[in-house]
């Protein structure tokens, strides 16, 4: 089956995942993590892509981005991925691919999912049993968004800014969101939408996106024809 084209639209957030090939490690030392973030900052500025949240895990990365142009995220990920692979191969005297194919992404509905996706990203080290609290993990945006640490990389999204009148109140209210577990249904929706390239959002958001891209942006209904009388009759022929 041919792959559907990416869902890329200007000014709509995207949740991006890129994994190491065969789920193998893509970060080996602190210098690797730092270089990745430095180049993420460079290319996000070059291609006018705002970075709202991130986590760098041992064998994959999660990013929450908003491009100002339709192809901003694609250009960012292509440039960042190429540079980082060359750096790793040169540094560790290795050859071949580092990433597992194309990065995966989904468009994110501001009204329903933006802050949930941001928390999902920053809670990754906790779900992986690497730390007990997201603030204990060094390579994520949690300390910026929840604790007020300064960062040249992170650009607050409107959804975040609406949490309070100033940075202190925004951090306080954002941190309070972590006292509630993310619903299992939301985790499933985030994973499925990102891995399969569908849209993550409510019905109105889905309809708006579909009107813009002119193609199906959610999974097709399964089993409808199989349950029809015509299908059952054909099985008897």
UniProtKB/TrEMBL annotation:
<feature type="domain" description="Transposase IS200-like">
    <location>
        <begin position="9"/>
        <end position="124"/>
    </location>
</feature>
<dbReference type="Pfam" id="PF01797">
    <property type="entry name" value="Y1_Tnp"/>
</dbReference>
<dbReference type="InterPro" id="IPR036515">
    <property type="entry name" value="Transposase_17_sf"/>
</dbReference>
<dbReference type="InterPro" id="IPR002686">
    <property type="entry name" value="Transposase_17"/>
</dbReference>
<protein>
    <recommendedName>
        <fullName>Transposase IS200-like domain-containing protein</fullName>
    </recommendedName>
</protein>
